[in-house]
Amino acid sequence: MKQQLNQIKADVVSALENISSKAELESFRVEFLGKKGRLTQVLRGMGGLSPEERPVVGQLANEVRSFIETEIERMGEKLEKELLEKRLVEERIDVTIPGTRKKLGKRHPITTVLDEIKDIFIGMGFQIAEGPEIEGEYYNFKALNMPEGHPARDVQDTFYITEDVVLRTQTSTVQARVMESQKPPIRIIAPGRVYRSDAVDATHSPLFHQIEGLVVDKGVTMADLKGTLEVFCKRLYGEDKKFRFRPHYFPFTEPSCELDISCPACNGKGCRVCKGEGWIELLGAGMVHPKVLEMSGIDSTIYSGFAFGIGLERTVMRRYEIDDLRLFFENNLKFLKQF
Ligand code: PHE
Q1: 250 lines ligand 1 (CB under 6 A)
Q2: CA–CA gap between residue 246 and residue 257 (Å, rounded)
């Protein structure tokens, strides 16, 4: 029996040499220490030993068992270590490989210029107002002194949703809405989308943006209109530019005008950009018509005001020398990345 035990110990040593995985280590454990393992089998024969032999063999058997157990533990740790080293080699990260660059979005040129315009007016004490794009025909027309039958109401220009609901054709709708809900002094700009049933070309789109401005207070005059708009234009286009106010007609302002800038391309000499005129139209403006004040509940004998409407796309086109308005809406990254 002693011999058997010593044989087991010798076999353990040689068997260990061939173990290279955890699964092999487990079958090794079963082979020697399992219920039907070799050590167990030897111990079964203990009953046949003499009382003197028993403790001696028992001690040897215990030694062999703890030898095997220690070896299993040692081998387990060794395998674990090897596995870790293998993984560290396999999964090594090469920090010198260039990464994949995340593409950062940019602001649309329309947003950039609009933010600049907002800043200029906020600097002059204006607040930002808003109105709905789907609008009652009252606010789009009637409240702006455009009674039924006025040419601007023509279905050619206006998208009608029902007989009295339209997609607003101008941000002037916000004028009446603000005057109804706020008391003077009023000083607001209202940027937003407007819609007209125009065919798409280099200077027309059925959707575009306007910025409305409205000032109502006691004693507001045309001089305030001129001063405010001149400051705005010089801030946006540069102090060296020349501006001119030209008489015009709008149903909701009286008197009305348009503001032109000396052509930035030819400096007023006349070229293709300004169609030979030397001037480019920037915006429409005027003194708010007393009827418009009255309709919105403001006493025109006490208060007066001025209003203006800026076409945003045109302003951006002039700013960045863009010659086709369609580019703003095509989402072409080659175009958009330039700003
Ligand atoms: N709403 C006018 C337009 O769309 C512009 C404008 C606004 C004119 C305010 C005068 C005063 O053409």
Answers
A1: yes
A2: 5
Atom of ligand 1 nearest to the CA of 288: 11
- Of 34 and 170, the one with more pLDDT: 170
pTM score, two decimals? 0.71
Q: Is the CB of 308 under 6 A from ligand 1?
A: yes
> Residues, the chain, total?
339
pLDDT tens figures, 94-115: 889 898 888 888 899 999 999 9
Q: Which atom of ligand 1 lies nearest, measured to the CA of 210?
A: 4
For residue 265, pLDDT beyond 80:
no
Instruction: Tell which wins on pLDDT, 89 or 152.
Output: 89
Question: Rounded CA gap, 8 and 310, in Å?
Answer: 99
Question: What amino acid is encoded at 156 in this protein?
Answer: Q
Q: Where are the domains of the chain?
A: 2-90, 109-336
CA–centroid distance, 210 to ligand 1, in Å, is 9
Superfamily of domain 109-336: Bira Bifunctional Protein; Domain 2 (3.30.930.10)
